[in-house]
Amino acid sequence: MILNKETFNIAPVPASRPRVTRWGTYYSKRYTQFRKDFAALLDEFDTQLQLGLLSIRLDFFLQIPKSWSKKKKLAKESKYADNNVDIDNLCKAVLDGLEGRYYFNDNQIVMIRARKYYSNNARVEFELLPIEETT
Predict the structure, then answer these.
(1) Strand intervals (E) in 17-53
(2) What is the pTM of this model?
(3) Could you confirm whether domain 4-17+24-130 is CATH 1.20.210.10?
(4) Contact 30, 38 (CB under 8 A)
(5) Does residue 86 sit in helix, strand or coil?
(6) 3-state DSSP assignment of residue 114
(7) What is the pLDDT of residues 36-94, one digit of tens each?
(8) Burial track 76-102 (b if 16+ CB lie within 10 A, e otherwise)
(9) Are 12 and 60 in contact, with CB atoms under 8 Å apart?
(10) DSSP class of 107
């Protein structure tokens, strides 16, 4: 039983490492902007906080680079993305944004299935499922 299934029309951005200086800690501008845009996008969805253990499925559709040839773009459309973006950083960026909206804390998540694809339509597809405890 799927608790939530959403498509977020936003280009996924990997979470960056925080930079620490003597004046404070900050994230890259690109990641900070993604967090703001993602929070604004999530305000449009009617969500309910879930209790208990959860499983999440994430499909990341990464924008095909404009510099690629038409032939390469056609060949890579809807194929697994083999770029340098780490999938765990993509997951972290999205899961941090979903916390407090779909679940109370990310320690409720005990299973994640994530995939990344190339697409002309950058987006994130998300499913939230309950974990049934069996003894």
Answers:
(1) 19-21, 24-26
(2) 0.90
(3) no
(4) no
(5) coil
(6) strand
(7) 999 999 999 888 899 899 999 999 999 998 999 999 989 988 899 988 899 999 999 99
(8) beeeebeeeeebeebbebbbebbbeeb
(9) yes
(10) G
